[in-house]
Amino acid sequence: MKYIDEFQDPMLAERLLEDIHAAVTRPWALMEVCGGQTHSIIRHGIDQLLPEEVELIHGPGCPVCVTPLELIDKALEIASRPEVIFCSFGDMLRVPGTGRDLFQVRSEGGDVRVVYSPLDALTLARENPDREVVFFGIGFETTAPPNAMAVHQAAKLGVRNFSLLVSHVRVPPAIEAIMSAPDCRVRAFLAAGHVCSVMGTQEYPELAERFGVPIVVTGFEPLDILEGVRRAVRQLEAGRHTVENAYPRAVVAQGNPAARAMLDEVFVTADRGWRGIGVIPDSGWRLAPRYREFDAEYRFSVDGITTREPAACRSGEVLQGLLKPHECEAFGTTCTPRTPLGATMVSSEGACAAYYLYRRLGGPTTAPLEASTRD
Amino acid sequence: MTSTEAAGPAAAGTAGTATAEAAGPGDPAVDFSGWTCPAPLRGRERIVMGHGGGGALSAELVEHVFAPAFGGRALSTLADSAALEVDGARLAFSTDSFVVRPLFFPGGSIGDLAVNGTVNDLAMSGARPAYLSCGFLLEEGVELELVARIAEALGAAARTAEVEVATGDTKVVEAGRGDGVYVNTAGIGVIPHGVDIRPQRAAPGDVVIVSGAIGLHGVAVLSRREGLEFEVGVESDCAALGGLVADMLAVTRDLHVLRDPTRGGVAAALNEIAAAASVGVVLQERAVPVPEQVAAACSMLGLDPMYVANEGKLLAFVPRTEADAVLAAMRAHPLGAEAAVIGECVTEHPGMVVARTGLGGTRVVDLPLGEQLPRIC
């Protein structure tokens, strides 16, 4: 397939792997920021092919994983109301809140619909003027601009029965929080390519300098990821720490000015809770005061819902690379993909869920897979 | 479409064991009452969409509700159809309900599916499909012309598949209490002597063959679903596989397993076979034929072609000694022209399906939990 097959070529992958093997002389822990990258790494088995010195720590960039339990409980409460049509991207329907998920709300009579764009939700609102249409606006800098556009359009068109349940988060404050943790092991970042296609790369030089870490803007296909790893390892081995763009076919330094203008128009930065990590100051967006009437939390008065994350879940340590998933007491016993205790076991992109799959295979007779658990 | 049979009691039993090992709610050592976060959702009190998705939730429904209530030996196999002895003749018997939306899609309609779905379930036991029953559940207000078009498609598909619609039934529900048109079919076929095809017969050393390109039906239907229309140039592969199976059986009676990978796709079908026979399956990912348009649509939607439904493909587990002959017979048939060896059956990792990726890595191809959902990123 044009523009996909080229970036999965096994021969080119081998050349990149040889380069990486030749360059590395000592152990390095790299964090891939985005869940899409984690997905690609697991799907193609890339981590098993890297030299054992190169460890990939799966970062907090899976929107499903990091959306706080409290917000999901708010979504469940709003979606249960008879006047509401609750719209969401598909994979949020399965994420459990406190004892329920959106599938269950739907089976109890709630009008929960999967849509593919927030603008589809806006169309639903215009077609159903007697109903309240709410869109579940979560995710990183990538999903924020279309959500901002939907609110902007709603205001412009005077659609009063549309609102956004919003919990957008931003990558740079998460990098800062991870690097500020006392025992942080991360030595380089593969920055999320699509986030940078919106935001550009201007937020990163300061972080690279302050924490002394290479930051390589990286894409999502296997060759993209190997190229990101190769560049990060070469910087580390040379003692450098600069921002590099290894995804130039999608990312330019200034990002997407129209999308950024839309974000500035509709959102303001705010403190956000990250599931498994906690509140990170100024790490997300909420609707600007002038768009407050489109804020579902305000409209449906769900501010009172507060939910504590379970103490047993140590996903925050996993996300920082301080703990291997299988070293957690709950791993594979009380915490499995079917009965997840926390963020990283919820999504197939989460580090714990990924480890769970490999561990099921693991055993003394399956040596190639043992390597992936890096015992 | 074949969720209950596709996730029969044998698979459910295995899934249940695995869950118990992982300390499910039935394990007295674990106290779930104090949990504040993601409670185990097995304790659902209502049907959710995933119960019909052909994955683990479907399997649990069969294991915990239907199998105990029905008893009987027919439900205790994991085949797409039940094999029954009647006066010395061996009959295959199967039923399937069709709730697809939209009713007409590129390459077919609910009428084609209603015939081919049940015919294929029969064919997967090696049976020669013979007779179908057909039940229509119609919603008050549906246009007669629409019903006639579906009936014509159904009749034409039956003639192509060389089966006779021998009996039928029609019910009408009040407006608002249905969704236009649902169709149920049941079918009977005759299993030839010396043929014993069932998931439990998968054995280490077997070669795994797929009869052609995967993912076409699921992508074709998605491309016409309300709110998600996109131009992809893909038609459903909806087809009756009885003729292809007959040609394979003409080469050898010793086919171990046949399976049509409908809901849950190739991944679900292989997982169920691996679990039923306690064998491992190793796939060569690059050998799996995925059309460019299917790969592109899946990439856009965040779906995995291995989990996307097919309606005119089969998976065959064949002894290595017979593989070349079977493959040649398949390729000589129009519905098997693109047949390919995609993997093998092994003794390692019983009950699990493992893919060797194009780059040389390895990943587990798990049973889908419920519906496959488009991902956010």
Automatic annotation (TrEMBL), chain A:
The keyword Protein biosynthesis does not apply. Belongs to the HypD family. PANTHER family: HYDROGENASE MATURATION FACTOR HYPD, HYDROGENASE PROTEIN ASSEMBLY PROTEIN HYPD. Coiled coil: none annotated. It comes from the Bacteria. This is Hydrogenase formation protein HypD. Keywords: Iron, Metal-binding. It comes from Streptomyces oryzae. Pfam families: HypD. The gene is hypD.
